[in-house]
Amino acid sequence: MEINRIEKKLALSSLLLMLLFAASFMPFFNSTNKEKIQKTAILNPKYKNIVQFSIEKKGGSSIFFQKVEDKWLGKSQNSSMQEEFSNIFPVEKKLVSKFLENCRKVQEFHKISQSQNGIKKMELSDNKTSDFSLKFIEPDGKTLCEILFNLKNLRENRIYLRSTSTFSVFELQDENLTPFLNADADFWADPYIIPQNIFGTVSENDIQSASLFIQTEKNQELKRIPQENYRKLLQLHHGHLLEQKYQTSEEPLKEESLKNPLKAQIKVELGNTKEIFINAEKKDKNTFVLNYSFPLEQHHINYNVCLSEWTFSRILELAEINE
Description:
By secondary structure, this protein is of the alpha+beta class. A hairpin with a 4-residue loop joins strand 11 and strand 12. It has helices at residues 2-23, 31-34, 93-104, 116-121, 178-182, 185-188, 230-235, 309-318, and strands spanning 37-40, 52-57, 62-68, 71-77, 87-90, 107-113, 132-137, 143-153, 158-163, 169-173, 209-215, 220-224, 241-242, 263-271, 274-284, 287-296, 299-308. It is built from eight helices and 17 strands. The protein starts with a helix and ends in a 5-residue tail after the last helix.
């Protein structure tokens, strides 16, 4: 009986040793490896009331975003420009909401390095070496956090990133974030000639009056745009943003009639003293420049966009200018 007990103990011990031995050859997936995968977000979801952030591209161009009441303004800066901002423009609100939603999304971040060498290798030392710098800014102007990004593997939508407050470098697979980081100011800007992100969405019923003033060397005329044309006016889009000091054509431009002016002004009255003035100037034979400049709360909207001659001719048609 004693022998049987000893044999059982030996057999049990042998089995335990065999299991431990086999476990030593199992794929490496222990607590150390689990620490390399962190479920987190670029922006802590608890920060629900972000009012300022900026995206800076390698080379110096940047866009600063600021919330004004329930609207967003974008301030673009080109590294080659002397001015602080080249354009201050209304931003598509739905794009900002989607971007911030993506930043607060909890995902799997794969830690690939936690050393100075890893940071240098992935070119994430500072905003001069990284492809993008994303800053979230508190209302008092202090930086809440800054994230550096490197988009080295776009085919697989893999992003390398780190917070400037740590040495940890992470890899993230996300196809939704890259388009926002890679976008220029035109992507964010309100695309409509009559902006839909300054005084809220403007419908034809919101317009009390709309007019087009044209002045040439020989004639000048103020034309009311008929109410039945308001909807078509609201559907018109402008082109891309221009630097404040845009170059006009060196070639003399001819104005033949009211249908071919060098300058014009669009005025839209929305009621409650809300007015939109848009100055139009011919840049070359195929393009006009629209300038928007008016106050908004404690800020001042000021931006230039290009407009094709075809689109400008549509405005003339809506104002029923036939000369």
